[in-house]
Design goal:
The chain has 310 residues and is of the alpha/beta class. The protein is built from twelve helices and twelve strands. The structure holds ketopantoate. The site of ketopantoate (KPL) has 10 residues, from helix 7. Ketopantoate binds next to helix 7.
Length: 310
């Protein structure tokens, strides 16, 4: 059986991290970059991955849209949610029939927006708790170890045991601490719920995650509103003991500036539409009132322009 060749769309922190580990493991992968200038910058320096045991260099092959059409049978999407549709559109003509697509990103609602672009694709969703950030373009810091989970996007996409094992083995499973979950939606929902509190709140208060300890009532209200939406959409187990889980993440990442705060501070577009925006759309459909989230949405909406894509 031929090895799976991953095409990684988005060489930010997580995409770069996976690309570097794949290349180190001798597994075929290609980075799909935004444009020719980005490709030229990448070719000048390659990837640097800083880990607790040192910094090493990797240079997996990379491409940018230029009219050529590599055949893509396995696509790993690590772009930010708000850039995914445009980024995928650049490579649509390269996707093999029955392409396997993994979306590994924060937020919810991207898969739904891709269904018309990706007819016939086998869609997987993933989530990771690894701490990774970019010290500079193509210089990734693997700051903290975590877990990564993959699973089918919906109940109609079925992967038998052999396919599951093959997919997991084709990724750097040990270093990613990679596992399969047929109910990945519940894991994504739980992360989404936690992000919907920490990210917009730190972005509006302009504070580090740990400083949310000074705003327990706000955290409690945001958490309670999410629980009401989760109940209404059948995701009650995803929000079991949610407030406790939020505080665990706040404490574990106390010194961090959330990704949304970083985006707002840098004048970049944010994942707001795929966090609070998505939550409010679900709430409206279910008839659930979410005043605290609506206020955050109104406060952050103007800061969410088209922005730049990483
Ligand atoms: O995932 C995060 C993010 O910043 O996007 C958290 C968990 C909030 C850590 O900062």
């Amino acid at each position: 059986m031929t090895a799976i060749h991953w095409h990684i769309l988005g060489a930010g922190a997580i995409g770069g991290l996976i690309g570097a580990y794949l290349q180190r493991a001798g597994q075929p992968c290609t980075l799909l970059l935004r444009d020719q200038p980005t490709l030229a910058r990448y070719r000048a320096c390659g990837l640097s991955l800083e880990t607790q045991t040192g910094t090493w260099h990797a240079a997996p092959p990379a491409l940018a849209p230029d009219g050529t059409a590599p055949r893509i049978a396995h696509l790993l999407v690590t772009t930010k949610a708000q850039h995914t549709q445009t980024a995928v559109a650049d490579w649509l003509h390269c996707l093999a029939p029955g392409v396997t697509v993994v979306l590994l990103q924060n937020g919810l609602g991207v898969a739904e927006r891709l269904t018309s672009q990706l007819t016939g694709a086998r869609l997987l969703l993933g989530t990771t708790t690894h701490g990774a950030w970019r010290r500079a373009p193509f210089h990734i810091v693997h700051a903290g170890s975590g877990e990564t989970w993959l699973g089918p996007a919906d109940a109609h996409t079925v992967f038998d045991d052999t396919e599951r094992q093959r997919l997991l083995a084709s990724l750097p499973a040990a270093v990613l601490n990679l596992h399969w979950d047929d109910r990945i939606d519940q894991r994504l929902w739980r992360k989404f719920a936690i992000n919907c509190v920490i990210n917009p709140l730190t972005a509006t208060l302009r504070c580090r995650n740990g400083e949310l300890r000074r705003h327990p009532e706000k955290v409690a209200q945001l958490g309670a509103e999410i629980c009401a939406v989760a109940e209404a959409v059948g995701q009650h187990s995803a929000v079991h003991a949610l407030e406790h889980a939020i505080w665990q993440v706040v404490d574990a990442t106390a010194a961090n500036r959330s990704s949304m705060l970083q985006d707002v501070s840098a004048g970049r577009s944010t994942e707001l539409e795929f966090m609070t925006g998505h939550l409010l759309r679900l709430a409206a459909q279910a008839g659930v009132h979410c005043p605290a989230h609506s206020a955050l949405y109104r406060a952050l909406r103007p800061a969410t322009g088209a922005g730049t894509r990483c």
